[in-house]
Design goal:
Length: about 650
């Protein structure tokens, strides 16, 4: 795992200037690659490539980057892992290619030369961001893995194209202007992340997963990216197109594909382990790791000081059953307080998924023992694990049949209720209702229902369902641009075939948007901040393709989610250790904000601090007042605004 950087300036660049600039860009992400560094400058062309290496495969100097292809046509920097590089190497050797080392980067270089860009990317199974300079055609090639596990940012302005693994890399490079994208801020304040291809900066975009871009002129606008693999086409060719695995074959196929994916993800020349929460996804990965490994797997989990959010005991029980070498890391609000000041530097774009905190802490602890970890990320999005899928199936189709004037009226009634009044009303009613009939988080659910009701289209209504903080636009002091539904939701709901099910539309929307832009962003930054490589075997593209060919009954069955993973796991871990209410990788955010983080929060959202920024003072004061009064449903809104202000202080103010 590594970090890549570079730029291409029209008119050329002085050799010393190019070297200095690209070295500065690479050094901005030394955490991604503390083991080695390298640069390449084509001064006449104005092209420079930079690299930071975290050595995982072939620890010798033969793995050094930038790396040239066998005949020197391509110069490549590459972040990630190609898990099938051995089979690709064999194919290239049969074609007469001779290799010097054992790295997957050398295979990639030879593949570009032998097969071309698209054919090489189509063969490669893995997670990656790639930049390749084609010296013969004077062309810069940028590519990103199929599902967006690894990041790649690109900016084009004033005759220069710049790219890098993190936004801070671009800030260190040439022509680094910074203009806030207010539409992206609106999205962020609602979703807690910035959905691609946007970034928080107007002139920077994320390269779309599964695509590659061929740039022939750095002074021209960025060209359209080309797809070498399409998740939408995979979905359309699978369940949506009638290609469904027979029930009788599903179990064997699921186990075979999962086992092979896990096996391929274990190759490493450095110590390797896994995160284990005790939930279905991580337990499945660890069980298969233990099954195919020759030695006991090292596993890691975190233990919160709030028992409501703590799953350490479940993880320990699974670890004991599987026989892993397990370590539990206790964390507290004080640990979070120590970490909070680093978040703007680590994420370098507003990001407010509060599970970033335990992700960082468990990564930091694991890095003391291993350099690579496997995670269970992706299981919820592929196999329908989130509660919102069941809620959406119960709610969205019913809302569709309600006349729009009535939907609007109901939404206005909810919006008109004073803050806190719904929770207070439910609390009074709860005194006479049996415990089983009492409603938890009533106000939070009502406000979400309001946003869902106001959606004019199914895509807008699902947008309301997945928005963590309804009313992101209202948190801004001045009017932002038009409020739009993120591309992933529009595509999944509007561009799939008419007979696509609501469940499949929700799954595709999350796989196109939430998965790369929230989940993979969180995992990548948390792990790479401490020079730890995180691998996600459930997101191997062959697992994804199989998931879209499974019958719906292998996703949801009898009120249980992720049946495909459950079926595989129940054969390896007693069902009693797994079946329990879903908690998720969450933190006691409200109690932390009212406790050890309160002083920090009050100062960062004080009127004087936010005076020159885009947040609305009245909105901020209302949210804080309610949170201090015990309304936990305000915690996410407050956290989102805190992370934005902390980021603004770091990168703008």
């Amino acid at each position: 795992m590594c970090g890549i950087a570079g730029f291409w300036r029209a008119g050329g660049v002085r050799p010393d200037e190019g070297e200095e600039l690209v070295q500065r860009m690479a050094d901005a992400m030394v955490h991604r690659g503390p083991d080695d560094a390298g640069t390449f400058v084509d001064a006449e062309a104005g092209l420079a490539l930079g690299f930071r290496r975290l050595a995982i495969l072939d620890l010798t100097p033969l793995g050094h980057q930038p790396m040239r292809s066998p005949n020197g046509r391509f110069v490549v920097v590459f972040n990630g892992e190609i898990y099938n590089h051995r089979s690709m190497r064999g194919e290239l050797e049969r074609a007469g290619v001779e290799f010097r080392g054992r790295s997957d980067t050398e295979v990639l270089c030879a593949g570009l030369e032998q097969w071309g860009v698209a054919a090489t990317l189509e063969r490669a199974a893995g997670m990656f961001a790639i930049a390749a300079w084609d010296r013969a055609r004077q062309t810069l090639i940028l590519a990103r893995d199929r599902i967006g596990i690894k990041p790649l940012y690109v900016r084009a302005e004033q005759g220069t194209v710049a790219f890098g693994s993190e936004l801070k890399v671009l800030h260190a490079g040439p022509g680094a202007s910074r203009t806030l994208d207010r539409d992206a801020l609106t999205d962020y304040l609602s979703l807690l992340y910035v959905p691609g291809p946007r970034t928080i900066w107007q002139n920077v975009r994320k390269l779309t997963p599964g695509t590659w871009m061929e740039i022939t002129d750095p002074a021209a606008p960025l060209p359209e990216a080309r797809a070498y693999w399409s998740l939408s086409q995979v979905a359309q060719a699978g369940r949506l197109g009638g290609t469904v695995v027979p029930e009788s074959d599903a179990a064997a196929l699921v186990e075979s594909v999962l086992r092979e994916s896990v096996r391929s993800h274990l190759e490493s020349d450095v110590p390797l382990g896994a995160f284990l929460s005790g939930g279905i996804d991580s337990s499945t990965v660890v069980a298969l790791m233990q099954e195919v490994s020759s030695s006991s797997v090292r596993t890691f989990t975190v233990q919160f000081d709030d028992p409501v959010h703590d799953e350490a005991a479940h993880a320990e029980a699974v670890a004991r059953h599987l026989g892993t070498d397990h370590l539990t890391i206790p964390i507290s609000g004080a640990d979070a307080l120590d970490l909070v000041p680093r978040l703007p530097q680590i994420y370098d774009e507003p990001f407010a998924d509060a599970s970033q905190l335990p992700s960082l802490l468990v990564s930091e602890a694991a890095r003391r023992h291993v350099t690579v970890v496997l995670t269970g990320d992706g299981g919820d999005e592929l196999f329908a694990g989130y509660n919102r899928y069941l809620y959406g199936l119960r709610t969205l189709e019913r809302v569709d049949v309600v006349p729009s004037p009535l939907r609007a009226a109901l939404a206005r009634m909810i919006d008109a209720a004073p803050a806190g009044s719904i929770d207070n009303g439910v609390a009074h009613a709860g005194r006479v209702l049996p415990a089983a009939r009492q409603l938890r988080l009533a106000e939070q659910k009502a406000r979400k229902l309001s946003k869902l009701l106001r959606g004019a289209t199914p895509a807008e209504r699902y947008h309301g369902l997945v928005s963590s903080v309804p009313g992101g636009r209202g948190a801004q002091r001045t009017a932002a641009g038009s409020v739009t539904t993120p591309w992933a939701l529009r595509h999944a709901f509007a561009e799939l075939s008419a007979d696509a099910s609501l469940l499949d539309r929700m799954l595709l929307a999350d796989q196109l948007g939430y998965l790369p832009d929230n989940q993979m962003t969180k995992v990548d930054r948390a792990s790479m901040a401490v020079s730890l490589e995180a691998r996600v075997p459930l997101l191997d593209h062959r697992v994804i393709e199989l998931a879209w060919q499974l019958p719906t009954s292998w996703l949801l069955r009898g009120g249980a989610s992720k049946w495909a993973l459950r079926h595989a796991l129940y054969r390896r871990v007693p069902q009693a250790l797994i079946d329990r209410p879903k908690t998720g990788f969450t933190v006691p955010l409200a109690s932390w904000l009212r406790g050890p983080l309160r002083e920090w929060a009050a100062e960062l959202l004080s009127p004087s601090t936010i005076a020159n920024g885009p947040l609305d003072r009245r909105y901020v004061e209302s949210a804080l007042k309610l949170l201090w009064a015990g309304h936990d449903d305000q915690a996410l809104a407050v956290w989102a605004m805190l992370q934005f202000e902390a980021w603004r202080r770091e990168w703008i103010a």
